[in-house]
Amino acid sequence: MPITSNKVVQIHYKLTNSEGEVLDSSEGREPLAYLQGAGNIIPGLEKALEGKDTGDKFTVTIPPEEAYGERNEALIQVIPREAFVDVEEIKPGMQFQAQMGDHPQIIVVTKVEGDNITIDANHPLAGESLTFEVSVDSVRDATEEELAHGHVHGAGGHHH
Ligand code: ZN
Fold it and tell me: Which residue in 44, 53, 90, 138 has its CB near the most CB atoms, within 10 A?
């Protein structure tokens, strides 16, 4: 059956950036299961999958605005070391989870200069054009419960 809203879709995929580096792949793993139309995956990929069917294979390049957004300089901030309670040593590359509005956000330490710590709350893939090689593994109707929750249950999906 073709992929439309409220279908549970399993895909295998390979994600590369504009330099051709492989960032993620489902190779050797269970396929990724998601609920079409629920915003489980980035908008550009969901759009590219609409109407595709089991066995279809395709490659799509998604610009930042339909992936993880443009980089936002306002999300780069310098904060004092005292803000990091319970952290003994702060080094560039360290990641922390912070609550930003209603969703958790990963922040990365990008620079340490004395007591000035530069953090970046942009998604690591913000500003990147992403190329996905996709093959559609299966398509099925979502259950009532999956629709109510807005995500997939069972193998390859979300577990309670
Ligand atoms: Zn659920």
Answer: 44
